[in-house]
Specification:
Layout lengths: L1 E6 L5 H19 L3 E5 L7 H4 L4 H24 L4 E4 L4 H11 L1 E7 L10 E6 L8 E5 L2 E5 L4 H18 L7 E5 L8 H13 L3 E4 L1 H11 L5 E6 H14 L9 E6 L8 E5 L16 H15 L4 H14 L13 H12 L9 E3 L2
Helix pairs in contact: 1-9, 3-4, 5-6, 9-10, 10-11
Length: 360
């Protein structure tokens, strides 16, 4: 039986997790492939759920969440589990885990949804830089300490080029651009990138983020471009690039986080691009499309449900043609109505009973 991990945060996390389990169960049932979803025992904080606490208490809860989720991921990886779906959680906890497990986020932009030949590959360096690090609190001050390292930079570049060879077989990356605030690093990043480029035998253009933005506005980024970026730019620009390459919104998109630390390298974390939306909790207003797509990707790539992605995309296209959508994209349907419409559009019988076994 295939095991898939599930980590749930506060806010709309419970609703999103329910959508994931329901869709994964239906797809697994249709393929007659048994799958067990194993939930983390802890429900992780969102940013909103921590508001009102003293900074010292926030720091303590942040560390507790980070330590627990890191342990959950390590435990899954040690048992050979290859996929975990995580709903949105407090970013401060999340980036502690990403730093410790040396994570990068990969997203192919452009081309058909769920396609294997994107126009552009975005690789977000989440393992180092200004989004990582530790806070030290003093009266009226927060001191944040972070670092960059040549070894981690090499791992991120290696991962980006390897992923490019997967998404563009036989061709690889036509152009590699790195968007980092390298002017703040005394020339060290320039030297690291130059050595990495020589090692791989490729040209890597290291740019300030505003230069990449100027190029994007002036003439776009040509097909086959790999953008390796620090989160200081990539986190903000992700939704802009989604719009530029394919006209997608964050509410309909999922991404993958891969881990470079050898002990967890086989575990891929799936997440929606949208956040926890605590103000929507319990109201049935969450757009479930990103979660539905993530469930299909997990089903096809990690559970063995052939054709799951194409089937879900067909069902989503059918809903869109009938104008069935949640309010955030101009519709009037509830979360549950959209999910029910997708499941009906899949044309597979039953709720997937026997295919999905909920775990602790």
């Amino acid at each position: 039986m295939t095991v898939v991990g599930l980590a749930v945060g506060r806010g709309t996390g419970a609703e999103v997790a329910g959508v994931f389990e329901r869709v994964l169960g239906r797809l697994a049932g249709a393929s007659e492939v048994p799958v067990r979803v194993e939930r983390a025992e802890r429900v992780y904080h969102s940013y909103v759920s921590l508001r009102g606490e003293a900074p010292e208490r926030v720091a303590a809860l942040t560390e507790e969440d980070a330590a627990h989720y890191e342990g959950f991921c390590r435990g899954l990886a040690a048992r050979g589990v290859s996929a975990v779906f995580r709903t949105a959680v407090n970013a401060q906890s999340l980036y502690l885990v990403r730093q410790r497990l040396r994570a990068v986020k990969v997203d192919g932009l452009g081309g058909p949804p769920g396609g294997v030949a994107p126009e552009l590959l975005l690789v977000r360096d989440q393992a180092q830089g200004f989004y990582t690090g530790e806070n030290r609190h003093e009266p009226g001050r927060v001191v944040r300490t972070m670092e960059f390292a040549e070894g981690i930079t090499n791992e991120v570049i290696d991962c980006a080029l390897a992923r490019a060879r997967l998404v563009w077989p036989g061709v690889g990356a036509a152009r590699v651009v790195m968007a980092y605030k390298f002017h703040l690093l005394d020339g060290a990043l320039d030297d690291w990138v130059r050595r990495a480029a020589e090692r791989h035998g490729v040209e890597i253009r290291l740019c300030q983020p505003d230069t990449v933005n100027r190029d994007l506005i002036a003439h776009g980024l040509p097909p086959g471009t790999v953008v390796v970026a620090g989160n200081e730019w990539a986190d903000i620009m992700h939704v802009v690039l989604l719009d530029r390459f394919g006209g997608e919104r964050q509410e309909s998109r999922f991404t993958e986080n891969v881990h470079l630390l050898p002990e967890v390298a086989g575990l891929v974390e799936f997440q929606t691009v949208h956040g926890s939306a605590d103000d929507l909790e319990g109201r049935g207003l969450v757009n479930p499309v990103a979660t539905i797509r993530a469930a299909a990707a997990v089903a096809e790539r990690h559970v063995g449900c052939a054709g799951a992605v194409a089937a879900v995309e067909g069902a989503l296209a059918g809903l869109a043609a009938r104008g069935v959508a949640t309010a955030d994209v101009g519709g009037s349907a509830s979360t549950g109505e959209v999910v029910a419409g997708v499941l009906a559009g899949l044309g597979v019988p039953g709720p997937g009973a026997g295919a999905l076994v909920a775990g602790a």
